[in-house]
Design brief:
203 residues; alpha/beta; 5-stranded parallel β-sheet; 7 helices
Length: 203
Amino acid sequence: MPSAVVLFTRDLRVRDNPALAAAVRESRQVVPLFVLDEALRVGPHAGKRRFEFLLAALSGLDHELRSRGGRLVVRRGDAVAETVRVAREVGATDVFLNADASAFAHRRERRLGQALRLRTYDGTTVVPLGGLRTRDDAAYRVFTPYARSWSDQPWRDLKPAPGRIDVPEVDSHPLATAAVGGEPLAREQLRGWLDRGVHGYAQ
């Protein structure tokens, strides 16, 4: 397909991102999109520190995408309306998305699926969402049997970061932060802990 949109939500990374990997594999051009909903800044679950953390993570994602020839496109408003608008601007019919478990995410997926061809992937959990059920096909209510079942499940395959990402011309809001966080910072901290911290963990 000529163009596709990847809608990022809580999956602000290029490594092990099944939706991004599939979009890059199947499309000539990809729009990596994040929509800053006003509720993220002023809603009941918002806060100054949380919003600053989000902006730093988005900056980190943009940095990773640019190192592969791409960039993060940021819009403000309703996630579904802006995704549809971006798709129309670049002539895309498909939106790629890593599925999420919340009721809010399910509503977003339903609305996206009504407007575009929605392609969802298991990218926010190690075991597919809804994959762990009791013998009676119910949700687990006790932790120990749940943990045993989780341990017995095969994990999904890890997806490598795309080598190159070609993004079509499309408008984007600037990110109002100089801080870089998210995946690049997390990987740096993990490397430091593996080099210096893990050996003394038992003590």
